[in-house]
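Exercise 7.
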Amino acid sequence: MSARPEAGQRQAGLERLARRVITGWALLGGVLLLAVVLLNTVSVLGAALITLPFPGDFELTEMGVCVAVFTFLPWCQMNDENVTADIFTSGLSRAWVAKLVFVSAVVAFLFTALMGWRMSVGMLDQRDYGYTTTILQIPHWYAFVPILVSLALLAVAAVLTMIDATRGSTGYHSDSEHPHG
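Solution. The predicted structure, written as tokens, is:
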């Protein structure tokens, strides 16, 4: 008997790890968004109470919200929480829904690869040209780094969605089975 795990066990372990990383990344995005809200609250109160706003709060808000939104995309893909038009699939069998989910995951993967490529080129351009925010002088390309991580995780999430669709466990629920009503 070999001590090495079988291929199926390794794949299951990699899937679990990927799902945990994606979930943790989304939670970090939530913490970032909370920090942006707190920063804005402090800035607004500072401006209103002692006429001293936080310099660069708009710049940090702009970058922080953008990065946070990208951190949520892999989690939404992995958990089938993207906006869908269930009216078109409500009468279909689970097998057909799984096929459509698979195709949509392939499209998501291809679109993510295209976005990752173009965003990486954009990041290099931002870095090479030395673009910075006006007040705080933060290089624009800094925001691209976590966005590219998010896109890599979105590609992984699309692959997980493909795997789920081939197993028939797409996360799709009819209206009567959907936990949100």
